[in-house]
Amino acid sequence: MITLQTEIFSAGYFEAEGSVKLADGQKIDYKSVCQDNLFYDAEGKPIGTMFTYSYFRKGIKDPANRPVVFFFNGGPGSGSIWLHAGLFGPIRVKYDNPEAVNTPSVPPYRVENNELCLLDIADLVFIDPVGAGWGRLLDKDAGEKFWGMDNDADSFNSLIHSWLGKYNRWHSPKFLVGESYGTNRAALLAESLSGSSQGEFSSISVNGLVMLGNAIGTGNVFNFDTTEEALLSLPSMAATNWYHNKIEGTLEEFVEKCYDFCATEYVTALFKGDRMTEAEKNTLAEKIAYFSGLKKETVIEHNLRPKKWEYLKLVLKDRGLEVGVYDSRFTLPLNPDYTQENMVRDDAAIAQYTPSFMAAMNGDFKKMLGITHDRKYYAISREVSKNWKRECSRSCAKSLAASMRRNPELKVLFSSGTYDIQCQMGQAKYLVEHIGLDLDRVKMSEYPSGHMAYLGEPSAKLFAGDVRAMIDGTLFK
């Protein structure tokens, strides 16, 4: 591939001022500081930079105790563009369709004042990792120092440690909001900050974690294979079926009915395996078809265990459509060449909403924040993802449980989009109930959206409201 090399790296620091008007009519004035945070090797040579976007509310007499929220997306290899431009920045991508589904994928795009911004109650920090967003790897041989589960958590630890010292925020209540792979990062980072056996002994307590689109597994690798995958996938398939096929009753009722089926008849039948009679298989296949929207014959062909990658192409096949893995409300014409390996490049949802996010980040946000460099923004870096070490010293689930055990005040919100086929709500529910967490300090919420639960105004308001309640302390009352 031929690329045009136009970028000359020079560490950046950019300040700006602005204001945002909230839903209650408040006008919040803020100062923003966007900058490179350089990492050096033992010889003092810069090897990488993480790029941060910090928003500080103006007029606060003593910010030392003011809450601060650190946001990051996942990938691995994703910048913070999605949480930043999608919901929590002072402006956000605007959609004419309230559900933000199948929106135009061509310009002009628009942004709007973000009435859901949290700047009235907390300062906000969005983080682009090394090699993603506007973060950069400066030494081509140093990727392994950042691009792995443990090293990634350590680099975020160092960044947060430095940020707290720079702005005298050690007494501030601290919250981590991670999306997708960012849930793995949040779990490992919370333990790393609290003082794990890995890396520095930081002893930084976190008040709350928000895990959007759970990707945490119970093994020491970046996957999830604890139980029958079909049991965890079917509720999201049921939501997809309800949306596209107009099933009678509410979404919540239909999904809850599916959960009950998975926890009773479905799991019992799968445990029986080949001891099932033909009559039992047929009865089970009919019920799976009822929830998933697939034909009974298709369910039987897939051994009563429809896989999510096949499901994307099968559920609306008769209409010549496929649904998105990141948001199954989105559709594209059926593509027989679509494979799991092309899930980002060819996904129905990402294909349609990404251009508006990129236009907002490179245009509106860059102008608003006074950023003048000419770097390319990597929403998702294939180089980072391809070279990522998908193993860690111990499972993210164990790290999360250890963090909650050490810190009896740590609270966790697991948030899932109902139409997220990639990181299913069933997966999150199963994880929470099987790794020994103090369930009195855990909340689970499901929203009528996809992987990015802020696509669509009803869901965005619910999710932003839950995060706000986490910060102001009302979520667990």
- What proportion strand? 15-25%
Mean pLDDT over the full residue set: 92
CATH architecture assignment of the largest domain = 3-Layer(aba) Sandwich
Structural class: alpha/beta
Instruction: Tell me roughly what share of residues is in helical segments.
Output: 25-40%
How is the biggest beta sheet arranged? Answer: 10 strands, mixed
Helix/strand order: EEEEHEEEEHEHEHHHHHEEHHHHEHEH
Question: How many DSSP-defined strands?
Answer: 14
Instruction: Name the poorly predicted regions.
Output: none
Gross morphology is globular
The third-level CATH topology of the largest domain is: Rossmann fold
CA-CA gap between termini: 55 Å
Number of helices: 14
CATH class of the largest domain: Alpha Beta
Number of domains: 2
CATH superfamily of the largest domain: Alpha/Beta hydrolase fold, catalytic domain
